[in-house]
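Note to self: keep these together.
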Amino acid sequence: MAADGSALAFDAKQRQMSAPFRPFFLIAGLDAIVGAAVWLPSAFGIQAIGPTGISPGDWHRDVLLF
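Structure:
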C-alpha cells in the first residue's frame, strides 16, 4: 500500500465501476428464492403447476430434458 493514497484512489475507482452490477446480483438472488418457492410445492405434489393436466413430476422431467 502506497503512503500517498494512490491505492485508496484505485479502490474507489474499482468500487465505482462495479456499482451498476450490484442490483443484478440482488435481482438474481430474489429470482432464485421465488423460483424455489414456486417449484418446491409443485415438485412434491402439493400444488398443481397450471391448467395443463401434467403432473408436477412429469413437468419437471420434461423441463430438464428439453
